[in-house]
Amino acid sequence: MLALADRLDDVNRAVGRIVQWSALAMVLLQFALVVLRYVFGLSYIFWNEAVLYLHAALFMLGAGYTFLVDAHVRVDIFYSRATPKRKAAIDCLGHVLFLTPALVLLLVYSWPSVRRSWSILEGPISVGGIPASFLLKSLIPAFCILLLIQGLARLMRDILRLRASDP
Amino acid sequence: MTLPFDLLMFAALIGAILLGYPVAFSIAGVAALFALAGWAAGAFDIGLMGALGQRVFGLLTNDVLIAIPLFVFMGVVLEKSRIAEDLLETMGRLFGRMRGGLGVSVILVGALLAASTGIVGATVVAMGMIALPTMLRNGYDPRLASGTVCTSGTLGQIIPPSTLLIILSDVMSNAYQQAQFAEGKFTIETISVGQIFAAALLPGLLLVAIYIAYGLIRAWLRPGDAPAMHESVVAPTRAEILQAVLPPILLIVAVLGAILGGIASPSEAASVGAVGAILMAGHRQGVAPALILAGAGALLLLALAAGLAPVRLQRSDAGLLEWTQGAAYAGLLAIGSIAIAAAVRQVFTAGMLMPALTGTMTITAMIFATILTASMFSLVFVGFGGEDRIAEILGLMPGGATGALIFSMALIFVLGFFLDFVEITVILLPLLAPALILMGHDPLWLAVLIAINLQTSFLTPPFGFSLFYLRGAAPPEITTGQIYAGVAPYIGLQVVGIALVGLIPWFATGLADWLY
Predict the structure, then answer these.
(1) Are residues A59 and B365, on separate chains, in Cβ contact within 8 Å?
(2) By CB neighbour count within 10 A (0-12 exposed, 13-18 middle, 19+ buried), where does A96 fall?
(3) CB contacts, 8 Å: B358 with chain A
(4) CA pseudo-torsion sign B32, B35, B39, B40
(5) DSSP string covering B248-295, please?
(6) What CA–CA distance (Å, rounded) separates B153 from B107?
């Protein structure tokens, strides 16, 4: 079970390692667009939308990695004082009762609009933009699946922690 | 009679968040469970969930929020390049020999970092590790010292540019439009990030002045609490002061000036700030100063060119003159780009780029996950008729519009003890704000009052971020009790600040009206 959890962790680690570069890319691209617009009077809707795509990819695809390194904020008034076992129990409850139903619901109810978008290969958001809105919409199921994968990995580790004999 | 699902849902939300599971997913989980339960009980139309896809897509394409990762990147890079340390050290030596002076220098550095990085955690940790030991060594009252560090660190939320203000402007703008729709207006006005920044600037500086006044009065009344430094220190030379203070001030003036002047959009200005931060970090990590200076100089010239003599290459009548001018600007751009590339490379070699990128991604993902799940929550909550219930409760408050405002502010203040500003802003405000605006409150003024209130939530135990960060960074002889006792007077000062802005709305609306 631990080996499987490791494999699942690898998914988000790999995705995170690539996606974090879009932070730098969006800074440099946006800066270049500022110079082109204000100094040279050139503006490109296509590249403006590229910044938007990088921005959306950063947080939608980065959410799983953020969960991997436990950087989604917790209100830990009680949690920080709990024993490791109790923490594992709270997390198990959260994975099963909160995370999974919410993401499955989001996945199921956003699916029709994503599928429709793919079936017509939906064009740009505004005229002259990137003709691939369907890719942007696909970030929604990707977000759900990456988080569900990480939730499963965490659930397995938490179950192991619960089963372990008290130290 | 069905169950009051909306009220139960709100109670369940608070309970779920207090469990300690990541907040974003607790919010989403409560929304999902109530949607299913309400559907089973026939009190909720599950078909409403079909709007989810469109809602999330709206979040993905919201270009106001693009400024958030850019500002986060700028802040993280400045944090990793240890600019806070330089500032504190120089300012401490500048003011330290005055009674209460160390405290003043901490507040001023807090304000500077607030405007440049805006990251509460980083500011509090840096000041807790550097300024706090110095203050203690020189005989400061530990409570006063830790309270000052904690509070100054939170200025990042109220002094623009700040993430809180960007999210707040989005929420308030929607609320304002909703209120105008309800009034039956046909020409709908909106609120821009620039307006909110302009509105928050003076109140932010007012708070800085209040803190400084408090520090000086306390040092005067009880000299033992905040003595002058008895360690012998060399006063910084003018060159040292310039070197520590000038770059961040230039950066702030450039970024804020462009936004407040209405020249650039927040995300455009943020990208300029982020590139400036890269250059500063590159300089700090040992890129040849001449190269950084040449690059920064070339980019400054370009900025001047943009203002005075931009070329318009896209015009069909662009002739030889335009193309020559354009070529000259391209040369400047090349110099700037080389300096930027050198800085990025140096920051990468120094091992700071990867942590900065990872930090930007996780902070951004955390914020947006909360916004995304909060929109799920509000979809379900509104589906249960929760919105009408809130308007009804506000209408029942004695004292009319003022009573409703005071009730709302008290509610935000109390929730601030448990919740974080993002949750309050994206869950509670969309429900409260339209009703308050409909009662006749000015949306900008309201936004600033709420912003100061939310800033206070960083200071209120048990769940004040600032307190946590200081607990982690403070020397072990400081007890948690001392930190709590130290922030107590500052929480009082926050209430004074809210009251002042509340009674004299000019603080919030003066600059915004003048600019827009």
Answers:
(1) yes
(2) middle
(3) 16, 20
(4) positive
(5) HHHHHHHHHHHHHTTSS-HHHHHHHHHHHHHHHHHHHTT--HHHHHHH
(6) 8
B343 and B281 in contact (C-beta within 8 Å)?
Answer: yes
Residue with tokens 């003599």: B309
| Interface ipTM | 0.94
Chain A interface includes B367 (CB < 8 A)? yes
pLDDT, position B261? 81
What pLDDT does residue B255 have? 87
For B243, phi then psi, to 5°, come to -65, -35
Rounded to an integer, what distance in angstroms lies between the CA atom of residue B278 and that of residue B379?
Answer: 40
Half-sphere exposure of B249 (CA within 13 A, CB side): 9
Q: Which residue has the tokens 């991997």?
A: A68
- Residue B407's pLDDT is 92
Least Cα distance to B193 among B251, B259, B268 occurs for B259
Does B30 reach chain A within 8 Å, measured CB to CB? yes
Pick from B395, B498, B473, B373: nearest CA to B133:
B473
| Residue A13 burial (CB count, 10 A) | 15
CA B319 to chain centre: 46
Q: How does pLDDT run across B251-301, given as a tens digit for each residue?
A: 888 888 888 887 888 899 999 999 999 999 998 888 888 999 899 899 988
Residues B347 and B342: their CA atoms lie apart, in Å, by 9
**CB within 8 Å: B364 and A62:** yes
Give the C-alpha separation, A94 to A79, whole Å: 13
Rounded-to-integer distance, Cα B358 and Cα B171, Å? 27
Pair of tokens at residue A145: 């699946």
Q: What is the residue type of B275?
A: V
Phi, psi of B154 (to 5 degrees): -80, -5
> In the prediction, which pLDDT does B206 show?
96
CA nearest neighbour of B148 among B474, B472, B448: B474
pTM, entire model? 0.89
- Spatial separation of the C-alpha atoms in residues B365 and A66, rounded to whole Å: 7
Best mutation site among B34, B271, B279 for testing chain A: the one with the most A CBs within 10 Å? B271
A152 compared with A128, residue with greater pLDDT: A152
Average pLDDT over residues A73-100: 89
Instruction: Report residue B373 as tokens.
Output: 């799940």
Q: Cα B198 to the chain's mean position, in Å?
A: 14
